Amino acid sequence: MEVQPVYDVINVCLDVIVALGQGYCLQYFLGSFLEGREKDRRINGLLVMVVYGVLRLGINFILPADNESIRTVGKITLMFVIIVLLALLFYKGVQAITAFLAITFMAVSEITFFLSYMLMQIGGNLFDLWVWLLEKGYIAVDTFEWIVQISATFLQIIFYGIFLVLLYFALRKIIRSFSDKDYRIQRTELYFLLVPGTVGLLVCLLLRTIMITIENDMPKLLCDRYPILSIIVPAILILSLLSILYVVKTFQNMIVLNREKNSWIILEKQIGSMQEHMEEMEHIYSGIRSMKHDMKNTLSVIMQLATGNEETGNAELQAYLSELNRTMERLEFQFRTGNTVVDTLLNMKYHEAVRTIPDMQMDADRLLFPDNLLIQSYDIGIILGNALDNAIEACRKLKGKESDAETFIRLSSFRKGKMIFIEITNSFDGNVIRKRQSEFPATDKADKEAHGIGLANIKSVAEKYHGGVDWSVDGKVFILSVMMKDERRTENEY
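^ that's the sequence the OP posted. Answer follows.
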């Protein structure tokens, strides 16, 4: 049996396996950032893997074999087009991040390929051993051919194995470093992310062009001609790969810092606004209560006079006065928690909510605060204000989807030792958007960056009092729990 046909078959099989392996890594990479069009992620990933594998193999047949430079550039260009098309066809919401994903995947693929190739050059000494044994007569010529082909196949399998393993783990590192995958990348940020990948890709393109030279009509590796390149080239490749990982990690840190900065800005504004209006609100509602008390006395006298004049048929006056009395009754606080700031906030939020959700029920009977509470009132106001905003928005969204749905918000609190527990329960549509690597549910509103900071601010205030925040879902009921230690804190402790 001839050796070459067997070797050719093995090579074809290895090419197919490697192409499918790269396809698997590609679908894993894209699927971690983009939402697949198929409901079943496994089916979507399988389609991407197979289509990529087929197209990857097909490129070798359409590119000219007589011009290596054109072949190399054409291959890189076509691979970029294929990856972008696969992202468009099999994934939703393709944005600027698609360019980053395509360039980064290609760069990492090329870098890991050359790193694996350079590592396998060490295995070239094995062939020198077989030649030495042949020259010494220890092995026959026929046996030598088989041994060489088997060794070549073995080294090729190891080479492709190292390549795919390095590719997979490098991509996984990028995926884990880039935790905010829903972040909308701006144009300048995209340029920042693309620089290391583009540079790495260009380096690999250069290596493909100059790595093999022709001397005396025989191919020869550039590293054999200049042995120092066996050290320099891997070092450049490793630095290129590390630069990609570093830029991704740095960019993620920038996202986190900017989000925290925005959160702090909003939190400081909320604190300032709460402090500025606290006395004003107390003064206004105190005046309303005083006015209500005086007016009730006046109305009582007028109604008695109107009743005594019934013989003259002054029923219209009585009706008017009764309605005026009911209006004054509505001026009274509907919610009483023992904290003036909280009472004011609850009443304001309730009246704001019923304008758009008339039948919404709001229950705060179990939300009580002691007179000697050490937690500052505006901190509680920030917690309840943000929580109520989210709850009202959830009820409004539910009502928009189901007009006959029951909408409610229930607030309660209790004390256990030095700890104060606050619980806000509200109805919602039951759809929880779980954000990757985030402790809070994500929003589906258009302004994703601004929305969602409310929960982060609640957490910041709770942590100020050595507490924390937790949330859970029971069917179509969302439950937010806040725990704080009842002690006095200062503003600079934020």
